Amino acid sequence: MFEIAAPSAPTAPTTPTAPIGSPTTSTASAGPRTGGRVRAARIALRTLQVLLALFYGIASALPKLIAHPTAVESFDRIGWGSGAMYIIGVLELAGGMALLIPLLQSVAAIALSALMVGAFIVQLTAFIVQLTAFDGQNAATPLILMVPLALIAWTRRSHNSDLLRVLRRR
């Protein structure tokens, strides 16, 4: 009913005769996988940029720009008032939008990182000075946000020279 095929003679493995690094050796198979990883990394980084842009534009800047009571209260507690609230809201919105513009994305990440350093210092200072009025619960948030911003600034750093060329032409 079933036929069993006779075992065939083993074949000797072939070895490449081309020089190392040529397309016919094992490095050629690493190319598509590496290209796929690079593409996946680019997509992940772009997704991170979009998420950060949404965070800065909606979750962070919008409450300041519409004078949401929680934002007003926070700025009043540290003694800065509504003027600083609006300025910081505009800076966050501009930085978030610039994260989506290829020519500006590295500079935007650097600028937002600087803004986060300032936010951390202000929150920590307010916590120390006004220990009872300010609980410092969000003091680590700026530091956490600096990690992906530093990654964006570093990986998109080639755009800085492009931006300088554009600025020099004007």
Automatic annotation (TrEMBL):
Keyword terms: Membrane, Transmembrane, Transmembrane helix
GO CC aspect terms: membrane
Superkingdom of origin: Bacteria
Predominant localisation class: membrane
Compartment list: Membrane
Species of provenance: Streptomyces capoamus
Protein name according to UniProt: Membrane protein
Keyword Transmembrane: yes
Membrane spanning residue stretches: 43-63, 83-104, 111-133, 139-155
Keyword match Transmembrane: yes
